Amino acid sequence: MHQGSDMDNRNTVLLVMGSARAARNCPAITAWVEQLAHRQAGFDCEVIDLAAWTLPAGDEPGIPALGHYAQAHTRAWSDKVQSASAVVFVVPQYNWGYPAVLKNAIDHLYREWRNMPTLIVSYGGHGGTRCARQLRRVAASLKMRVANTSPALVLPDDVIRRGIALRPQHDLAAFERTVGRAFKELAALVAGTEAPLSRLRRTLLGAWFAVT
Ligand SMILES: Cc1cc2nc3c(=O)[nH]c(=O)nc-3n(C[C@H](O)[C@H](O)[C@H](O)COP(=O)(O)O)c2cc1C
Question: CB–CB of 48/14 below 8 Å?
Answer without folding.
Answer: yes
